[in-house]
Amino acid sequence: MFSRRHPCxxxxxxxxxxxxxxxxxxxxxxxIGLIAVSNLMIVAASTNIAANHATxxxxxxxxxxxxxKAIPFKNLRAGGSLVNDSPSTNSTDPPVISTAGVLxxxxxxxxxxxxxxIQVRWTITAVDTxxxxxxxxxxxxxxxxxxxxxxxxxxxxxxxxSAAPMGCx
Length: 169
What we know:
- The protein has one helix at 20-70, and strands at residues 79-80, 107-112, 116-128, 131-140, 151-158.
- The chain contains one helix and five strands; from the N terminus they run αβββββ.
- Strands 1, 2, 3, 4 and 5 form a five-stranded antiparallel beta sheet that branches.
């Protein structure tokens, strides 16, 4: 009785191991899985960066809005632009009252650690002699995340009739 053996001295054919084709197919499948996971990591990292910029913009916009609400009503003047800096210089100082007693700027830039430069612009629109509408827009200055980080705030300030004899706050 002769037994059938593998020419290389191996045992039964069922116990030979993986063929080269099986190994290549396994490597291709593993590569596809790794590419999908790496793509997921890239998307997660970019989304995290955009979220950091959006949080920073919302925080800076909210702070600018609170500063504008704290300025006395008599010192507010209509002006500003949400598209262009007014005045045209970039300022890192908070809004202040000028020597003439009125708000003298309508934009602000803040450098935040770990995020970058956040741009805040606002407009003040006179609805009538006793009402101002204030609109604040803050966003990152990084081109790829600027639109995704945009935060907008609106409010209005009024001088009521009952407060008129004492002056508006």
